[in-house]
Design a protein that fits this description.
Number of strands: 0
Number of domains: 1
Number of helices: 7
Structural class: mainly alpha
Helix content: 55-70%
Length: about 250
């Protein structure tokens, strides 16, 4: 009986228990890194609100405050992109366990050997799968794109309207100077930053989401009556090809 342990029902229960412990551990790691992402996002939101309130609080306040806030938010974006790469590592493992083990088990189908083999490979040699550029694009899409747009537009509005509306481009450029740095340099850098982040933000809408990112389920065509009284109706998930019942 001892020799055949792991092949019968007792072995199946042991395997499920081990997988449950593995799933709990990976889910805990993913949740901790998700919390760290939320913390950085809260810092960026608080900083943006503070610098905009202070920058437009009085006529004496300069546009330097908004530039400092923009720099801080960009720093938070870099920090969060690095954290997101680690979050993607652990969340990818969680999705592989769910998709390759628990979902087939609930459907009473064989487990997905490809997903489990990929999980074993990542556990054997852990490495970051998500590039830094893809992490920046994802965080721009989720939170930072709108924050940066608001801060940049606030800077342009501050320079243009304080202490009085600028009547020419030369006056706007003259107001945009930052100490010994010419207004042309500051304005040029702001335009380059705005175009760069706008390009990354637009590309993020068409780029494929990371494995761990949630996707909206397809909605079936339905009548107006169902749209009101059955708002959460979703299409039935497609079964895997070649999947057979156990």
């Amino acid at each position: 009986m001892q020799e055949r342990r792991g092949q019968g029902p007792a072995g199946l229960e042991l395997s499920d228990a081990a997988m449950a412990q593995l799933y709990r551990g990976e889910l805990g790691r993913s949740d901790r890194w998700r919390t760290r992402l939320d913390t950085t996002t809260n810092w960026a939101l608080t900083t943006s609100a503070a610098v905009i309130s202070f920058g437009f609080g009085s006529r004496e306040s300069t546009h330097v405050t908004l530039l400092a806030g923009l720099w801080l938010v960009m720093t938070f974006l870099v920090i969060e992109a690095r954290r997101y790469r680690y979050y993607d590592l652990w969340n990818r493992r969680v999705r592989l366990i769910e998709d390759g083990y628990w979902a087939p088990l609930l459907r009473r189908e064989p487990v997905d050997p490809d997903a489990l083999r990929e999980l074993a490979t990542e556990m054997d040699r852990p490495q970051l799968q998500l590039t830094f550029a893809a992490a920046v694009q994802t965080r721009l899409n989720r939170a930072y794109g709108s924050l940066l747009v608001v801060l940049m537009l606030s800077w342009f509005a501050k320079v243009h309207t304080h202490p009085a509306p600028a009547v020419s481009l030369q006056e706007f450029i003259a107001r945009a100077h930052l100490g010994p740095i010419s207004g042309w340099v500051v304005s040029g850098l702001m335009v380059v930053l705005m175009l760069s982040f706008a390009l990354l933000w637009l590309v993020s809408f068409f780029a494929r989401s990371p494995l761990g990112e949630l996707r909206a389920r397809p909605r079936p065509r339905r009548s107006l009556w169902d749209a009101f009284y059955r708002p959460y109706l979703a299409a039935a998930p497609r079964r895997r090809r070649g999947a057979t019942g156990v």
